[in-house]
Amino acid sequence: MNTFGQALRVTTFGESHGPALGAVVDGCPAGVALSEDDLQPALDRRRPGQSRLVTPRKEADRVRILSGVFEGRTTGTSIALLIENEDADSSKYLDLRDLYRPSHADYTFDAKYGHRDWRGGGRASARETAARVAAGAIAERLLPGVEIVAWVSDVADVGSEVDEAIVTRADVDVNDVRCPDAAAAAQMTARIEAARRDKDSVGGCVRCVIRGVPAGLGDPVFGKLDAALAGAMIGIPAAKGFELGSGFDGTRLRGSEHNDAFVMRDGRVATATNRSGGVQGGISNGEAVTFRVAFKPVATIFRSQPTVTRDGEATEFAARGRHDPCVLPRAVPIVEAMAALVVADALLRQRQIAGF
Ligand SMILES: Cc1cc2nc3c(=O)[nH]c(=O)nc-3n(C[C@H](O)[C@H](O)[C@H](O)COP(=O)(O)O)c2cc1C
Hints:
The protein is of the alpha+beta class. It has one domain: Chorismate synthase, AroC fold (4-Layer Sandwich). It is built from 8 helices and 17 strands. The strands form 6 sheets. The chain has a 5-stranded antiparallel sheet, with helices on one face. Strands 8-9-15-10 form a 4-stranded antiparallel sheet. Strand 16 (305-308) and strand 17 form a beta hairpin. It is globular. It starts with a strand and ends with a helix. The mean pLDDT is 95. Bound molecules: flavin mononucleotide (FMN). Flavin mononucleotide binds next to helix 8.
């Protein structure tokens, strides 16, 4: 399955060390002002080689729009996006033809297909997410008045304090780790650098707030907005957990403590607190949509680990090549892009239902 969404459908293609990757976006209404310059800033935030905390692979990640835009506006036809791979070095991945990296996708791809592109992780590489980020930037063009901000909230054992009512992307981008709490960011950076020195990796969490989502998006039962967000987020490589609003901590409260009391605010029904994370019954309630995504420590590490070959023989594997010691800083724009795709898809479907 390489396609995501219903009203706004995104099909991605490409492998880590193939000639290019990209996306075809279908369902974008006609008449939306769109240029490559609208997409590039999001790709620049995701691309590798931005700081010493991430993989040194050098990719410009210049995106080209091949179709669906004429005279600066969308035509309503499919929008094809292309990003070329420029800095692939498959020589460091030769070991991966014949053995399975612990906790990566080598074994499961073999189990499923029996034939896999082992170069740089192939289709399982997070390079594929460049295409999602480009598509997400188109989705954001369909969401005037909606503001999506994600940041690194946790790295290993380090948490942070951030006011999600006011945090902006500019606040997030003040440091390389993308955590707007400066004291926490310094400790997170130290954890990532220590892991790199130890030829190891660390995980953490990205928190995201979506402000300005109107009440009424999402469908009951099988098309729930929170379920769509959970699927989108867990579909990001290395994502291992999702929680909406109060999430797992909310289980420790009683209903009387957890309930979001209804109040009137600015002439509309609102809630005094937002432990629901902006979604009730699978439908947005007009409050900010808030969630957190957990990412595991990167699987490919430079210290030796036991594994097995394709032939079932025990062996040792220590990575070569270029890898992120922590995916968190680069996961931030990916989370935002997937959130934009989910909300834009829900908005377009709501328009179909409402008939406007
Ligand atoms: C931004 C980003 C960068 C990543 N970089 C690496 C990497 O350098 N090395 C690696 O082994 N995994 C990396 N991953 C994770 C793998 O792609 C992922 O673990 C793999 O596809 C297996 O899937 P799973 O962890 O979701 O089960 C990265 C993920 C993200 C989101």
